[in-house]
């Protein structure tokens, strides 16, 4: 019996097929009827897809069943150490290192003792024109979970 294709191997095939077919992540998300950030993360291996979603993606990208099987499998979430060396990803780490303690204090002041869920969670990305250079707007929208003692 052959093992299930790894999420990283499936992601490499997906990225190549998407580029070669001239499709954007947004177009793929629209075809699936799912949010673009979630769709991109799922196709890069961070979320499992339903059987229907995996089938649709593989049809659009002309990929075979081993990729669909990988898309349906449960992931190990989070990036490896190599991901942290990417400049774009590292800027998020840096921003949270600088502003994380302040955000934590403000969450506690506004909501009380608890955390923002990253499971019951939405994330969005937008471009905002600015005369000094376009701005990247990232919105984290997580349910507040209070600590119950």
Total strand segments: 2
Low-confidence stretches: none
- pLDDT averaged over residues: 94
CATH superfamily heading of the largest domain: lambda repressor-like DNA-binding domains
Question: How do the SSEs run, as a string of H and E?
Answer: HHHHHHHEE
Number of domains: 2
Strand order of the largest sheet: 1-2
Description:
- This is Cyanate hydratase.
- It comes from Saccharomonospora marina XMU15.
- The structure is a single chain.
- By secondary structure, the protein is α+β, with helices and mostly antiparallel strands.
- It folds into 2 domains: 66 residues, lambda repressor-like DNA-binding domains (434 Repressor (Amino-terminal Domain)), CATH 1.10.260; 65 residues, Cyanate lyase, C-terminal domain (Cyanate Lyase, Chain: A, domain 2, 2-Layer Sandwich), CATH 3.30.1160.10.
- Helices cover 52% and strands 18% of the residues.
- The chain contains 7 helices and 2 strands.
- It has a two-stranded antiparallel sheet.
- A hairpin with a 6-residue loop joins strand 1 and strand 2.
- The longest helix is centred in the middle third of the chain and has 25 residues.
- The chain is globular.
């Amino acid at each position: 019996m052959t093992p299930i294709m790894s999420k990283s191997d499936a992601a490499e095939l997906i990225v190549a097929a998407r580029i070669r077919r001239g499709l954007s992540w947004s177009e793929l998300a629209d075809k699936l009827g799912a949010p673009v950030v979630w769709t991109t993360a799922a196709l890069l291996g961070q979320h499992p897809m339903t059987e229907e979603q995996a089938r649709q993606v593989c049809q659009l990208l002309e990929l075979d069943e081993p990729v669909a099987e990988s898309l349906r499998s449960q992931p190990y979430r989070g990036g490896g150490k190599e991901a942290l060396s990417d400049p774009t990803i590292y800027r998020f780490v840096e921003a949270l290192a600088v502003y994380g303690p302040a955000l934590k204090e403000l969450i506690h002041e506004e909501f009380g003792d608890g955390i923002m869920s990253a499971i019951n969670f939405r994330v969005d990305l937008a471009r905002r024109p600015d005369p000094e250079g376009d701005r990247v707007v990232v919105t984290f929208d997580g349910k507040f979970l209070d600590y119950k003692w």
